[in-house]
Design goal:
2 domains, four-stranded mixed β-sheet, 21% strand, alpha/beta, single chain, 4 helices, 2,3-Dihydroxybiphenyl 1,2-Dioxygenase, domain 1
Length: 201
Amino acid sequence: MGHGARQRPKVPTGARCTNAAVRLKAPAGRRRNLAGLRGIDVETGAPASSYGQSATRARQTEGTHVMDWKLEVVVVPVTDIDRAKDFYTGTLGFRLDADTQPTETMRVVHMTPPGSACSVVVGPKVVAPGADLGSSASLQLVVPDLEAARAQLAERGVDVTPVQILDPTRDGGKYVFFDDPDGNNWAVQEVRKYVGAELGS
């Protein structure tokens, strides 16, 4: 090999390499370890030309594995774990998945809305009574029939707003809103044709 030529790093047969195509905000203690990967194509060792969706699509085109990042748990701050558990399971009808105490000082109550792939957890974040949680959580559910969903909430004693039409020209423009006992605010959106986020093309 001539002087100054760059040798392509050898990849073991059958191994799958991934590029750090999506920038992650790592904890401070791990940033030094990630620093060496930023801007580097791990397949060639050369500086990466771009980040984001274009790089991800290129990797998919080449048949390289792309990691799925699924949002499956949202931790909601509460002042009273039992009261929150009763509201989400008894009033809203969420399924109770687990109620555990992994440490002496922490309790974890895991609950899932009917038909949802994302769950709500209360317990890890307990705040003092009287704390203002009005802007601490802004969570959204999606349903195919908002009138029926609102009727169910009202029948269960939830103080839910009337239907609000924010955009009458498109599917997805109708909402209702309610708060949990700690003031965490929830929105319910009607989407009739598709429920979920479209993947980038």
